[in-house]
Amino acid sequence: MENFQYFTPTKVVFGKKTELQTGTLIQEYGCKKVMVHYGSGSVKKSGLLERICKSLEEAGIAYITLGGVVPNPHLSLVYKGIELCKKEGVDFILAVGGGSVIDSAKAIGYGVTNPGDVWDFYEKKGSPKACLPIGVVLTIAAAGSEMSNSSVITKEEGGIKRGCNSDLARPRFAVMNPELTMTLPEYQTMSGCVDIMMHTIERYLNRADNMELTDGISEHLLCTVMKNAKILLHHPENYNARAEVMWAGSLSHNGLTGCGTDGGDWATHQIEHELGGMFDVAHGAGLAAVWGSWARYVVSEGTERFARLAVRVLGVSETGSDMEKALKGIEAMEEFFRSVNMPISLGQLGIKPTEEQMREMAEKCTFWGQRTIGCVKTLAQEDVYQIYRKAAL
């Protein structure tokens, strides 16, 4: 077992109509002015934004709004948000949406409170020393950003997608009403379920001497998401299934499933980030499209962990060698992706990258050959290219 620290300061307010408590929750922090940050017009059409603004007004809290966040959130809007917050004297950011909105809010929070260009933190040129306090009203169960320390932003120029991790940006509270996710399209719901699973699998597949308890939590979380994803495929308004998935999303990425591990692999995420940066694909769907190719490329280096995943989560028989079980597990995972209408190749994802584009993504993924990724098997630039190539077949 590895030494670890577990830090989860986010207050969770979970259940029906909890968004009506937003104003009261923000009152606790004594802020003077809030920026309500959101994505598309859906929060307006549903009436959610109006309900939240009314809650702020009833609590006597001044606010401004900034919408326009897109999937794979853009740096240009982050810059706009930083400028607006400074101009208006904003001292609290309320993110109303999913992972993209929350990640954008965190980046704005860094930019307001630190000198220099906020993008430098995402390029690993220093670390933030402060962040505006963030609150969340969650509308999409997927990224887990509502309780995590991570933020991922895309710089439009060059299509570069990068992450910054800091406990300074962990939200102060997260309001989670599963009813708010019921209007999501099927593709977005299933993509979110895959994202939740991958946050867990990235930590689960590692080279450490793991804790049995942490493994058990991870395994049950994965089984829970898989079960409820299939329920939501046919019954998208099932409240209990929505609630199970929403809570799993938070637990998958708040550090719980990494306690006692070496931190996990994360190569699949790094590989997908370049797909998102270049082709603007849905994150969870992109993860599904490359995971099988990555898994087969590295399975010989992590056979025992893959075999355990296969038996404990994917229903593979305990008979046979670890490699046999591992390969059957990879097939079973891909079959699950297919069963919830998720892609298992780049073609099924709807993209056909050229040889030049795959080389470029591999180059960017490894910071132009300056870093390796992964821990199950250490991957250099050529390895990453080969994984893209296999995923494109």
From TrEMBL:
<dbReference type="InterPro" id="IPR044731">
    <property type="entry name" value="BDH-like"/>
</dbReference>
<keyword id="KW-0560">Oxidoreductase</keyword>
<feature type="domain" description="Alcohol dehydrogenase iron-type/glycerol dehydrogenase GldA">
    <location>
        <begin position="9"/>
        <end position="178"/>
    </location>
</feature>
<dbReference type="GO" id="GO:0046872">
    <property type="term" value="F:metal ion binding"/>
</dbReference>
<dbReference type="GO" id="GO:1990362">
    <property type="term" value="F:butanol dehydrogenase (NAD+) activity"/>
</dbReference>
<dbReference type="InterPro" id="IPR056798">
    <property type="entry name" value="ADH_Fe_C"/>
</dbReference>
<dbReference type="Pfam" id="PF00465">
    <property type="entry name" value="Fe-ADH"/>
</dbReference>
<dbReference type="InterPro" id="IPR001670">
    <property type="entry name" value="ADH_Fe/GldA"/>
</dbReference>
<dbReference type="InterPro" id="IPR018211">
    <property type="entry name" value="ADH_Fe_CS"/>
</dbReference>
<dbReference type="GO" id="GO:0005829">
    <property type="term" value="C:cytosol"/>
</dbReference>
<protein>
    <submittedName>
        <fullName>Uncharacterized protein</fullName>
    </submittedName>
</protein>
<dbReference type="Pfam" id="PF25137">
    <property type="entry name" value="ADH_Fe_C"/>
</dbReference>
<feature type="domain" description="Fe-containing alcohol dehydrogenase-like C-terminal">
    <location>
        <begin position="190"/>
        <end position="391"/>
    </location>
</feature>
<dbReference type="GO" id="GO:0008106">
    <property type="term" value="F:alcohol dehydrogenase (NADP+) activity"/>
</dbReference>
<dbReference type="GO" id="GO:1990002">
    <property type="term" value="F:methylglyoxal reductase (NADPH) (acetol producing) activity"/>
</dbReference>
